[in-house]
């Protein structure tokens, strides 16, 4: 099987020098990209462990919250629970910024959820069950956990995409670009050596012809 080379390259010493420089840059770039890929993969798995824990924690807290909400609905009735829910004001303040992980811009979510008492939530003691207050408190805690989970899952998604992109670039350099450059360098070196031999033979023939004519 013929080795692939870069087409349209003239076999000159200048081109040979340029190709050798390109080969050095490609090898250096390949090494740097491999280091970046390995660091990204390590960061990916570190955050993945956090995601698993955060998801489990959020699911457990939501399960507890819905359990208390169901108990409140049984005790108070659906309409009374809905009325209590409508009296509660929004209390979530979210600010989204960003940071860089190995050149990958990922979100940083800063959330503030005010912790409320029964009085703060706006419904009274007499016509509500303690279960609705417990449910409300657990839903507030769940929101914090869900926001944190959203941040880490988005980070995981972005890192995974960058890992895949970097792997493709590493493979392209390793299996396509660098071999092509190396093969082209060898091809030009062989062609230049062949041209030198041809020139040497021609000069030798000219010299022999001149000597023959002189005799």
From TrEMBL:
NCBIfam families per record: PRK00373.1-4 (NF001545), V_ATPase_subD (TIGR00309)
Protein name: A-type ATP synthase subunit D
Bilayer topology annotation: Peripheral membrane protein
A single cellular component GO annotation: plasma membrane
Source organism: Methanobrevibacter filiformis
Key word Hydrolase present: no
Biological role: Component of the A-type ATP synthase that produces ATP from ADP in the presence of a proton gradient across the membrane.
Similarity-based family: Belongs to the V-ATPase D subunit family.
Keyword Coiled coil set for record: yes
Residue runs in coiled coils: 48-75
Subunit structure: Has multiple subunits with at least A(3), B(3), C, D, E, F, H, I and proteolipid K(x).
Subcellular localization(s) per the UniProt record: Cell membrane
Gene Ontology BP term (one): proton motive force-driven plasma membrane ATP synthesis
PANTHER family with a match to the protein in the record: V-TYPE ATP SYNTHASE SUBUNIT D
């Amino acid at each position: 099987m013929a080795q692939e080379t870069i087409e349209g390259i003239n076999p000159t010493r200048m081109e040979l020098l340029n190709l050798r420089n390109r080969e050095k840059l490609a090898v250096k770039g390949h090494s740097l990209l491999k280091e970046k890929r390995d660091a990204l993969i390590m960061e990916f798995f570190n955050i993945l462990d956090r995601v698993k824990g955060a998801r489990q924690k959020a699911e457990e807290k939501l399960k507890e919250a819905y359990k208390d909400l169901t108990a409140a609905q049984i005790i108070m009735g659906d309409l009374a629970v809905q009325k209590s829910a409508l009296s509660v004001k929004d209390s979530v303040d979210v600010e989204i910024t960003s940071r860089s992980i190995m050149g990958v811009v990922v979100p940083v979510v800063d959330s503030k959820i005010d912790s409320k008492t029964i009085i703060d939530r706006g419904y009274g003691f007499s016509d509500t069950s303690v279960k609705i207050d417990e449910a409300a408190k657990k839903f507030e805690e769940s929101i914090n956990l869900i926001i944190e989970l959203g941040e880490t899952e988005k980070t995981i998604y972005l890192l995974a995409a960058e890992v895949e992109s970097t792997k493709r670039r590493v493979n392209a350099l390793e299996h396509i670009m660098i071999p092509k450059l190396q093969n082209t360098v060898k091809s030009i070196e062989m062609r230049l050596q062949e041209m030198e031999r041809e020139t040497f033979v021609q000069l030798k023939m000219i010299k022999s012809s001149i000597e023959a004519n002189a005799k």
